[in-house]
């Protein structure tokens, strides 16, 4: 296994490193619900917080949240900036390690989870597919009793009120999740500014993600009478209406959290 200072130059470029406590809580909450069973079943469930940034808050929080569903989970924070790795060392403890690296993911065994939040936003759209392939190849493979590891890649605002991410397995993209603090939302298309790099430039007429957000806004407008019961009830009604035309994969338990998850194939860029 490579040492904490990897033997070869890490793959990738240094990002801005912006981070805040609780910024990724919505993504973590979804991971625990969607992937917790896989983590529990594993003998050594390793998760990677890829590109945790200038401070290690997100890695610390990921360990805490994963252990609510998988008590033996371990987290490895990976950063391409060696100064950030050195600064994080005081926070290392049993189950939490920090290593210098990039998209090569310097861990000894294939991880069951790679979380890459706000990492690819600073890359070109044309680079995303190759990065996804590289990271998916590092995931634990599928087997008779497992769907394999999970890559969660997406973008959120600075305090985590609005977040959109793609979930990928070893075989490639599976779903897209939109998550928001409902009290901060004027209309669902407000989430467009947080689309991950693979989709953000595709929010134009003729592209599926644009059609989805257009239909979501229409459903939101039609659900306006439910606003008197609160934003949550309006969101849930709008999502329920969306299911008539879009392959929504989750249900009311997740909708109540201000989430909706759609199959990747329905939103994938054309061409």
The major pleated sheet works out as: 8 strands, mixed
SS class: alpha/beta
Task: Note the overall shape.
Answer: globular
Overall pLDDT score:
94
Number of helices: 9
Radius of gyration from the CA trace? Answer: 18 Å
Strand percent estimate = 15-25%
Report low-confidence residues grouped into runs of 5 or more.
1-6
Summarize the structure in words.
The chain is 32% helix and 18% strand. The termini are far apart. Strand 4 (113-117), helix 4 (125-138) and strand 5 form a beta-alpha-beta unit. An eight-stranded mixed sheet has the order 3-2-1-4-5-6-7-8. The protein has nine helices and eight strands. By secondary structure, it is α/β, with parallel strands linked by helices. Residues 1-20 are annotated as: Disordered. GO terms for molecular function: methyltransferase activity. Keywords: Methyltransferase, Transferase. One of its GO terms (biological process) is methylation.
